[in-house]
Write a structure and sequence with these properties.
The chain is about 40% helix and about 15% strand. By secondary structure, the chain is of the alpha/beta class. Helix 8 links the parallel strand 4 and strand 5.
Length: about 290
């Protein structure tokens, strides 16, 4: 990186330092997951970006915990009969390669052309554990995404949607529109996503926001309603796993953060208290 170049050039660069955190976890003797491709995908630039963001470096437990929780929801849903995974803004995620998955599973990765081209080149000699298809698409193009969702929905019997690390870059109105597009597809039965409180968003904006915004990305989505927001747009929260409490259980935080994790769980509306969770949502069109 030269002095005039932003640390984060665009939103896809966030996938590079996310991959570094997965690589570091994978290299631990007590790793919670193994991603043998993460360091190769992150490259030198991913390491440089991570080191240039001190707050993010101190909060690596959030990235690791989120990965573990989404992995858990994927396994749960596959055991309950999901036949299709639709991963939006897939970035440098390697779950189709690193997880033990049934060969019959269909996995769809959707993201911008540049990041998917880069990943395909790095992983060109690797074989996924299940059926894998990549679609180059800008999710802000509502008509194009609806056409794609309709196509995917027509071939899936029961699909799980993943929006890991995506929603925070959308406005509340954009998230509502996306949720309604998902809900309109009957076979899109479950949805796993992370969510942040207004208090956490404020903290992120103060400590990492300027670097992210220079890359034409901005933290936006932090509904005061918490997961209850989705009920008005076709989705019911069936499980909400606190990032803080999950990280404490997984032993991935320092003593001070472990102390905070002992405070009562924050439920319902979210305000100034920094809070985040990974949620499993159910399409209201299906029975419990």
């Amino acid at each position: 990186m030269n002095a005039d170049e932003p640390v984060v050039r665009n939103i896809s660069d966030t996938a590079l330092f996310a991959a570094i955190y997965r690589a570091r976890e994978s290299e631990r003797s007590d790793a919670l997951f193994r991603d043998p491709f993460a360091r190769r995908l992150a490259g030198e630039r991913g390491e440089q970006i991570a080191k240039s963001m001190p707050f993010s470096e101190r909060a690596t437990w959030t990235w690791i915990t989120r990965t573990v929780l989404v992995d858990d929801f994927i396994r749960l849903q596959i055991n309950q009969g999901v036949d299709t995974i639709v991963n939006l803004a897939a970035g440098l995620d390697t779950r189709p390669y690193r997880m033990s998955l049934p060969p019959s599973l269909k996995w769809m990765e959707i993201d911008l052309p540049g990041i998917l081209d880069y990943k395909e080149e790095i992983l060109r000699d690797e074989k996924p554990a299940c059926g894998l298809e990549r679609v180059r698409l800008d999710l802000s193009d509502a008509n194009a995404r609806r056409e794609l969702f309709a196509r995917l929905g027509s071939t899936a019997r029961r699909a799980l949607i993943i929006t890991e690390g995506l929603l925070i870059y959308f406005s509340k109105e954009e998230v509502a529109s996306l949720a309604e597009d998902f809900a309109a597809v009957r076979s899109f039965q479950y949805w796993a996503s992370d969510i942040a409180s207004p208090g956490l968003l404020k903290m992120l904006k103060q400590r990492t926001g300027p670097q992210i915004e220079r890359g034409n990305a901005e933290f936006k989505f932090s509904p005061e309603e918490g997961p209850d927001l989705f009920a008005a747009h076709g989705w019911l929260a069936v499980e909400v796993r606190s990032m803080l409490k999950s990280a404490a259980r997984l032993k991935r935080m320092n003593p001070w953060m472990r102390f905070l994790s002992m405070l009562p769980e924050s439920k319902g509306k979210q305000g100034s208290r920094p809070w985040s969770a990974v949620c499993l949502l159910r399409n209201q069109c299906i029975n419990a």
